[in-house]
Inverse folding.
């Protein structure tokens, strides 16, 4: 199986004013495309050819850095586009809300910890909500890593590489994270991944 770049699930200008058309053009058409192209080149002739994306990400971690970085970022970005939607944020599906209260104290606390994960991730990386041992936890990872390689299943992630926010927010990463949580998150998709991971 080779990697392929999916279309965005919405128009390039659909997330404005929180994420601009220009950001999505660069982020999707240049950055994600490069992960796909580089990943395919590195996959060719490797022991991972013919494996599923998740198997490639897990199998190449710590073994084949070039392939892992590109496959990991391909996996992360495939979900990232779906973790956002126009008019996102807002009310959470009931069961997900209940589980966040149970495991993290409150929805506000969960959102704050998730934002804080992104603020404190030094350099490039991601902040996450993930399911680990049956519980929802907050995690942060550098570069192309994800909870997948740390024994957990990601259900929400936010890209804190500068390419994701610098055009719109310059150095104000906390403002980008707040806008992501309050105005962009597709909580229905998060609930879907939670249900599948449970
Ligand atoms: Fe990115």
């Amino acid at each position: 199986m080779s990697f392929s770049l999916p279309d965005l699930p919405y128009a390039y200008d659909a997330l404005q004013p929180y994420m601009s058309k220009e950001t999505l053009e660069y982020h999707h058409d240049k950055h994600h495309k490069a992960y796909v192209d580089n990943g395919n080149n590195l996959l060719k002739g490797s022991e991972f050819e013919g494996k599923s994306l998740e198997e490639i990400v897990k199998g190449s971690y710590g073994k084949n850095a070039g392939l892992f970085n590109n496959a990991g970022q391909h996996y992360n970005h495939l979900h990232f586009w779906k973790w956002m939607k126009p008019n996102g944020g807002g009310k959470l599906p009931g069961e997900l809300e209940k589980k966040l209260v149970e495991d993290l104290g409150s929805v506000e606390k969960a959102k704050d910890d998730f934002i804080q994960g992104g603020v404190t991730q030094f350099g490039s990386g991601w902040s996450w909500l993930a399911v680990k041992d049956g519980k929802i936890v907050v995690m942060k990872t550098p570069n192309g890593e994800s909870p997948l390689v740390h024994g957990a299943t990601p259900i929400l992630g936010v890209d804190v590489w500068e390419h994701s926010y610098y055009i719109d927010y310059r150095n104000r990463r906390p403002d980008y994270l707040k806008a992501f949580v309050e105005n962009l998150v597709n909580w229905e998709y998060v609930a879907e991944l939670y249900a599948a991971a449970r």
Summary: Residues 56 and 80 are 19 Å apart (CA to CA). The beta strands are 125-132, 135-142, 153-159. Residues 27, 31, 77, 159, 161, 163-164 surround fe (ii) ion (CB under 6 Å).
